[in-house]
Amino acid sequence: MEKTKKKRRAATEEKKRLILNAAVHVFAEKGFHRCRISDIATRAGVAYGLVYHYFDNKEAILNTIFEENWGLLDKVIDNAAEQSSELREKLRAVVAFILDAHQLAPDIIQVMVIEIARSSKFLKKPKLDAYERVFSRLAEVLAQHQSQGELDSTQDPKLLAYSFFGSLELILTGYLIHTLQPGTGDTLESIKSALVDNFLNGIRTSASRTS
Amino acid sequence: MEKTKKKRRAATEEKKRLILNAAVHVFAEKGFHRCRISDIATRAGVAYGLVYHYFDNKEAILNTIFEENWGLLDKVIDNAAEQSSELREKLRAVVAFILDAHQLAPDIIQVMVIEIARSSKFLKKPKLDAYERVFSRLAEVLAQHQSQGELDSTQDPKLLAYSFFGSLELILTGYLIHTLQPGTGDTLESIKSALVDNFLNGIRTSASRTS
Amino acid sequence: MEKTKKKRRAATEEKKRLILNAAVHVFAEKGFHRCRISDIATRAGVAYGLVYHYFDNKEAILNTIFEENWGLLDKVIDNAAEQSSELREKLRAVVAFILDAHQLAPDIIQVMVIEIARSSKFLKKPKLDAYERVFSRLAEVLAQHQSQGELDSTQDPKLLAYSFFGSLELILTGYLIHTLQPGTGDTLESIKSALVDNFLNGIRTSASRTS
Amino acid sequence: MEKTKKKRRAATEEKKRLILNAAVHVFAEKGFHRCRISDIATRAGVAYGLVYHYFDNKEAILNTIFEENWGLLDKVIDNAAEQSSELREKLRAVVAFILDAHQLAPDIIQVMVIEIARSSKFLKKPKLDAYERVFSRLAEVLAQHQSQGELDSTQDPKLLAYSFFGSLELILTGYLIHTLQPGTGDTLESIKSALVDNFLNGIRTSASRTS
DNA sequence: AATGAATGAGCGTTCATTCAT
DNA sequence: TATGAATGAACGCTCATTCAT
Which domains occur in chain B, in start order? Predict the structure, then answer.
């Protein structure tokens, strides 16, 4: 009995995952507004109505995707902050997480970047807060290193956090829409390093530096 | 007769502008997908059938907004490339244009950033090309300075261009959605400088530099 | 110009009427819950969407029917109260109005009796008040005749009003569902008289009266 | 074995009753069309699939409620006709049954009056016959007393039956929707008497009678 | 008997677009 | 040019009903 119930619960959870995965795929392919519930159901290989058995509505599906994945980012920053004392390492961990995720599951990253970040203007309170927390968290980390004299203290750490994620995001977008292609020499690792190093050191050659 | 025709043409152009302005406002307020043609017409103070005299459909309105404004950015980069030999000046001109525009007409910038740049995934050929040209143009400028030894030549200039615009875009987004507020000390000018300087020099203090 | 606008306004009003009439017919035929918007549109000979041009939703159509017709009943009672001093005459005017209306437009009466009275349990404030006003108004009239000694003053006039309308309503229902048929001798006029007389005098023969 | 079967049968019957009671409650609360099977199941504390073990469909539940209760009314009229020779007593028994039932189980009465009696227009053959039988039965009783000279023989007894039940029904409706409240002096008994007496004697004072 | 996952037809509503005036 | 009535495809969502366990 117990076992049966557990099994059923597990099967149920699996079905939900199936729908979620289908949704991620379809959102990435056609965009949230352009896709229909039936696209999701078809892709998941389930009946139309079943989607509504698991989710209140289309928006709720997107919310679930957001919560599951944005939460991960939250944790990654926390872990990075704890596990290393080097700022460079911390930033690299964040970049690595996102770029690796993009390798493994580009659809999810795309939905996060395009469908959620894009609609951030229209986010309501609880979601907006969750969204913002990631930036605040990185800003905290930066602030800490400012106070240790490693970073220019005159600058707003929040703005720096936005700057950092902005670079990352648009580069990702470039990859996603294929207007930006990794050069022949660029390994994923070299891109990770470049992103972090450029953020920390800038792109000028030391030769050309005056100030 | 001639005059009358001109007048009429001018009046027509004015009406078109009226609708375009209304569209910008409404797109910014509710988002492209969430707003209706009638919202635009109401805001413009015209009958909604009239919108179809001036534009083929809803998409065409967004296209017009895109073309008019993205074209400006194109020109700004060209001008900047010509009018100064200093890379810093060139970049500053671009940043200044965008941030000033955001001061003067935040709705336009919002629509460009949120409704167009973010949905670039779904752009079709001609629009996508126009979109991409801006990045290529900036990349060219950067490549030129690489060849002059001012910038690290090992890096992909296109990627650097994406990085630069990405920072700018997300900071703008932060301002637009009010999760990022200009600090009390931050003048618009100081933000412009910081963006360019950080891109060129990074954010590390010289004291903490080892390499 | 003026004329053209007026004409258009009139044509519009006519179209609305067309839809309203179709709705009355369809509501009467299949019942409010069982009919679809498309039934109304088809019956009216207009496009599906036009119904929504004139009415917010299905409920709003029923509301309009209610308001237009229930308001008439209101006025009829008022007029009857003013134009005659005889209670019998007043009641007869009310009965006559309803039964005549039923002859002329049985569908409307049916919708009023079945769809609105039935859902009276679920009426919200403003509609419920309008609904109730008719009963209150008749109760006032009865109360006045009580105070003149014509009617038994020990009884609740409101309850008497409900009793009166209840008789009328169920008889109408009987006719509507054809479980009650006017007998061969019964003219409409005789039924009107019977209803009023029975209400005032009861149905007992004087011979059998003891009290 | 026998016993076990009986027990099981009893348990089954009990479950069915549970669902039926829940249905009555929910139909009364939200209306037949506005409630879902799951509302009934939830209220009954069972899985909603179980509802389909006991009933073919939603309609069948309503039918069962109708049959169980309308059948009682049938019997009440029969009993009244047999047990007393006085018409007043017979009518009083019917009124008493209904009003007492309304005291004890207002939900059932409401469902009978609002969901069934009011939608009688849409009843199909077998149900319609059952519905109608009650009126016919009362009409028979009245006809009998007409032939004994107690009641005005010129009137259609069926119409009188409708008139009588109509009064009763709308007064009940008034109580159900709380637009009619029992006055402070009105006991339930006085209302029963009034209904019957008014039907038999009318509401005019003898002083004002001319005919 | 009991559960609740699964199905899919049905329907209300929206809204871009067309068209008559 | 200007209006807004008219059209109807599209789609989100509901929920009665079936079915596997």
Answer: 1-55 (1.10.10.60), 58-210 (1.10.357.10)
